[in-house]
Design goal:
The chain is of the alpha+beta class. The chain has helices at residues 33-49, 95-98, 114-118, 120-128, 198-243, and strands at 56-59, 64-65, 74-75, 79-83, 93-94, 104-109, 132-137, 147-153, 156-159, 168-170, 175-180, 183-188, 193-194.
Length: 244
């Protein structure tokens, strides 16, 4: 096995693994390829959006424990965002050590989870104090609406009214969630722009690289042309000198 002596181990937050609090519940990350792809895309879309804020932690499929000393009380949100806890590597999330629950949770509902998402899990997140709870039905088969949002008011979740275009605003994130043909998307109303997906960021990076290469090639062509013109003028001058 290759070793990397110059690479230090990752320093995790204090909520690191212990036998008392397992890192996995043994369940698969998602039921279908579509669920997994959309879940990962949502996660990887939100992380860059908040990367300039060091106190914002975006994660998902991480074991979250909410009763100290009892590992039976756990939940693993598909995607969650927590403000004010610091962005650092974590193996698990202990609410009593972090000092707070996540502020935003997004669950991807499926045939096997939608009843629990609308029932016990919803009640759990409300009891923990999660400010906003969103549900997304990627297959548009199980929830009353493909996208649903709830905001905590006096300890009870109140439905967030969808806008005329079907989007549901998240006050916590400062973003609007939309269901589009390509799936779940996030829109920043302040910046008036869609948050780019990983694929879109890659395309943009490739376009920037291509544009930079074209600029460099054009600059080289101009430099070569200038050098050739200078050489021509020098030769012409030498010929004129030779005639006199």
């Amino acid at each position: 096995m290759a070793s990397y002596p110059n690479t230090p181990p990752i320093a995790y937050a204090p909520t690191e693994h212990s036998a008392e609090y397992p890192e996995s519940d043994g369940k698969p990350m998602a039921e279908t390829d579509k669920h997994r792809e959309e879940l990962m895309r949502a996660h990887q879309t939100l992380i860059p959006h908040f990367e300039k804020f060091p106190d914002v932690y975006v994660s998902g499929n991480l074991m979250m424990y909410y009763v100290e000393g009892d590992s039976r009380h756990s939940v693993s949100p598909d995607v969650f965002v927590s403000f004010g806890v610091g962005r650092k590597q974590r193996r698990i999330y202990k609410i009593w050590e972090e000092g707070k629950p996540p502020d935003f949770v997004l669950e991807f509902s499926s045939k096997n989870t939608f009843r629990n998402d609308l029932g016990d899990k919803k009640a759990l997140y409300a009891s923990l104090g999660v400010a906003e709870y969103f549900l997304y039905d990627a297959e548009r088969l199980y929830l009353p609406a493909p996208l649903m949002g709830f905001r905590l008011v006096s300890g009870v979740y109140v439905p967030i009214a969808a806008r005329a275009d079907g989007s549901v605003p998240s006050e916590t994130l400062g973003l609007d969630l939309h269901v589009r043909e390509t799936g779940l998307r996030f829109y920043d109303p302040g910046a008036q722009m869609w948050l780019p997906t990983p694929a879109e960021r890659l395309d943009a990076a490739e376009q920037r690289a291509d544009a930079e290469k074209q600029r460099a090639d054009a600059e080289k062509q101009r430099a070569d042309a200038s050098e050739a013109e200078t050489a021509r003028l020098r030769e012409e001058l030498e010929r004129l000198k030779a005639r006199t």
